[in-house]
Structures are given as structure tokens and as C-alpha cells.
Amino acid sequence: MLTALNTQTRHGEVCPLDTTLKVITGKWKSIILCRLMKQELRYSELLRTLPGCTRRMLSLQLSQLEADHIIQKEVDPTYTPIKTSYHLTELGQSLVPIIQAMDQWGAQYIKTLERTTD
User: Fold this and answer.
1) Helix crossing, 29-38 with 16-24: angle to 10°?
2) Residue 23 burial by CB count (10 A; 0-12/13-18/19+): exposed, middle or buried?
3) CA distances from 65 to 30, 33, 107 (A)
4) Model's pTM, two decimal places?
């Protein structure tokens, strides 16, 4: 599977901003990351918190985040059924302040637009 680093050369060079956006862009990636910023979650727990997300889509998004070393999958075969859970890696944890800053910027942007369109 290609990682964000190998796929972000549309300008003829690796662009750090495009790479960051590729890592976090995806229909469900941002909300998955927000969920995992708070705690480790099992696959079924994640799926339950994402209304409208199919099992296939969740698996795809998790696989991409795992390939980009943002999350880590833990499998515990001592449970029946096997317990599969996900958590942020150290690299994933380093994204937390960036995601929080983007969230704050988005909230301010929405407020500003709401004021100007009233």
C-alpha cells in the first residue's frame, strides 16, 4: 500500500503540506483521529461512533492510517472473538496539536462567516 509520502509528488517534489493533508484527508480519517486522540478503541467501538460509515470504508481508512504510521493495530487472540483495537502511534500523537489547531481555526472561520452573512 502506498503511503502519503510516496503519493504526494504532484508538484514534481515531495510537498510537506500536501503530505500532511494526504495523511488526514479522507471521508472518515479526521473523525477517526479525533476519536483515537481520546482513547484506544476497538474496531466495533469505532464503527459504532461513525454513523453512516460502512465496515469496508472504516477498514480502508484504518489501513491507510496504519500504512502512514499514524495509528497502530493491536490484536489480542486470547479473546473470542479476537480483540482488535487501535491507538495513535507516537507519530500520530504528534498530529494532535495540529488537528486541534485546525479545529480551532475552523470554528473561528465558521463564526466569522456566520457574522458576515447575517
Assistant:
1) 80
2) buried
3) 10, 9, 25
4) 0.85
pLDDT tens for the chain, 118 residues: list them: 556 666 656 677 778 888 899 999 999 999 999 999 999 999 999 999 999 999 999 999 999 999 999 999 999 888 888 889 999 999 999 999 999 999 999 999 999 999 887 6
Q: Indicate the burial class of 99 (C-beta count within 10 angstroms; 0-12, 13-18, 19 or more).
A: middle
From 65, 30, 35, 64, select the one nearest 47 (Cα to Cα).
35
The closest of 33, 18, 41 to 70, measured between CA atoms, is: 33
- For 32, phi and psi rounded to 5 degrees? -60, -45
The sign of the torsion formed by the CA atoms of 80, 82, 88, 91 equals positive
For 85, residues 6+ apart whose C-beta sits below 8 A from its C-beta are 40, 41, 42, 43, 73, 74, 76
Phi, psi of 72 (to 5 degrees): -130, 140
Say how far apart CA 110 and CA 85 lie, in whole Å.
34
